[in-house]
Amino acid sequence: MMAILRKNSFVLLLLAAFVLTDVAVSLWDPMVTSRRFYKNDFTKTLYHHDWTAHGPVFYGNSAVTGAYIEPDAKKSPLIEMGLSYGKLTDLKAILEQERFQVEEQLVIGIDVHTMIDSLETDPTYQWFKKPYQPYLYAYRDYFRDSGTEFVRQLYMGAVELDPTKLLAYQPRWIDKELYFGHKTEEELRKKWADYDKRFGWMGEPDYRENLAALDWLLAYAKERSLPLRVVWMPWNRGYELPRYMPGLQQAVNARLQAAGVPVLDKLQGYDPRLFHDLVHLSRQEGAPVFTKEVDAWLASLAKSSK
Q1: Is 0.85 topped by the overall pTM?
Q2: Which domains are assigned to the chain?
Q3: Which of 16, 39, 22 is nearest to 136 (CA)?
């Protein structure tokens, strides 16, 4: 045994060095803590709320981010947790892994994409990393990007004899994407055609995983006596609703009705002039209207429950 260890000592030392380095980096967690690295929308949510990982939540995808305005992160009745390409399966993972503790109430915004199982999402969301995956491997593309910048700055600082450039870097964007202005009719037609080609043919088998996640969330809320509300997020009614939506909405609403969950249906409730595109309200025109209506609806539910 000792002979084998001596023979492979160099390889074993390299392996040990990698493991120790990976553990140290994972404890540092630069994907969350360092502005040198890309930030996903879940990390951005925590950042903008002083890293608070508990409270009332308005969860959804980018449609929620664009539509719901927090007047002040410390005074808002809800923490806006819109995640780029966020699905119900993501919310289930967040709660299962205890990455956030929802308190007081959980509002879920469902739009035409929230329940599509196959929709690709952000691979850097923390719940996607497997426990056995090395940190450096899981986020290798982002280490490569930031590492390239680091080496470039070291080179520039050394060549130009400028110590201020040695460790300089461009802080990664920490704000979520909002939607200003309005897309042209031509752009909207192209986007609708793209949505129809990619998703229009879908049916219940294509959102089965997210329906199961909804069932899990309903049980989770009931077990904890957590008030759960659902908002059907607005779709630009100037264009035909995706063909799978009536069946999806029927399947979801049946579950919500059975569980006694209040529903605010704004799926086709807003004038096209309030939209930036097909699924995102304009921040100037649409979002203030939506926010006021949602807050009033939630206040009326709170009042009626007293």
Answers
A1: yes
A2: 39-129+173-304 (3.40.50.1110)
A3: 22
